[in-house]
UniProtKB/TrEMBL annotation:
GO cellular component: a single term: bacterial nucleoid
Protein name, UniProt field: DNA repair protein RecO
Gene this protein is translated from: recO
Keywords: DNA damage, DNA recombination, DNA repair
A single GO BP: double-strand break repair
Listed Gene3D superfamilies: Nucleic acid-binding proteins, Recombination protein O, C-terminal domain
Job description of the protein: Involved in DNA repair and RecF pathway recombination.
All residue ranges annotated as the DNA replication/recombination mediator RecO N-terminal domain in the record: 1-80
């Protein structure tokens, strides 16, 4: 029975039995799988915070091929993101992002980028105040990495770049970009589409320097929320409380 290591963000956490806890990680190397930390809820030596949603942890675990879950031998807390979790908004942001990734990330697949964007987003929000630009940035980057969202901005009809057109929109039903030269558009979403392109080609720090208009940011987040509903067939449990908590800042 081999002993292996993994490092990642806890995206699911569930009490199991009287003292155990089952977790799932968006990890750096391995495929997504379930891990069980036996006795951690009653342990005086191991921190229960290492199994909280959003915690960055390192684990040593037994690779038991015959089991649906792996037993954790050692678990170490790398970053709890205490400042972020000290506020209700920060806690809800963690719940929202973790639920989103847990829903989109199938077990048995490996997507190290999801670990990177979770860590980067939580580190930024932990060290800086919350900003709404983080929402469409996180969602679009995650969706594009998983292959759900188109990353080339060409009109479905003429094949030309919509970024060079006078008007364009994203057709949510068909998940295609359309330009104003080929179609009578219900509305012009070109500023939002250019914002999408900026998200996919720039780091978040650079994105913040560009000072995109809030209207484009809000429309981008609205469209991405609609897109998430269309591919998951549901609303995330944390959605309403998270956006209620944002309130007027959004």
């Amino acid at each position: 029975m081999a002993l292996k290591k993994e490092k990642g963000i806890v995206i699911q956490s569930m009490d199991f039995g009287d003292s155990d806890r089952m977790i799932s990680l968006a990890g750096e190397a391995d495929v997504r799988m379930k891990f069980i930390s036996k006795g951690i809820r009653k342990s005086k030596r191991r921190a229960i915070s290492s199994t909280e949603l959003g915690s960055l942890i390192e684990i040593d675990y037994y690779d038991q091929a015959e089991k649906d879950w792996k037993s954790i031998k050692e678990i170490n807390l790398v970053n709890r993101f205490d400042t972020l979790k000290s506020t209700y908004l920060g806690t809800m942001l963690i719940f929202y992002f973790c639920e989103m990734i847990a829903t989109l990330y199938p077990e048995g697949e490996s997507h190290p980028f999801l670990n990177q964007i979770l860590v980067g987003s939580f580190e930024y929000a932990d060290q800086n105040k919350f900003t709404i630009e983080l929402l469409p940035f996180f969602k679009l980057r995650a969706l594009a990495n998983l292959g759900h969202f188109p990353t080339e901005f060409f009109c479905h009809t003429c094949g030309e770049s919509v970024l060079q057109k006078r008007s364009a929109m994203f057709a949510l039903e068909t998940r295609e970009f359309l330009c104003g030269d080929c179609h009578t558009l219900a509305r012009d979403q070109l500023p939002m589409i250019r914002f999408f392109q900026t998200i996919l080609t720039h780091r978040f720090s650079k994105l913040m320097e560009l000072e995109t208009k809030k209207e484009a940011v809000k429309e981008a987040d609205l469209v991405l929320n609609q897109f998430l509903r269309s591919i998951t067939g549901k609303e995330f449990k944390s959605y309403f409380e998270f956006y209620k908590t944002i309130g007027d800042s959004f």
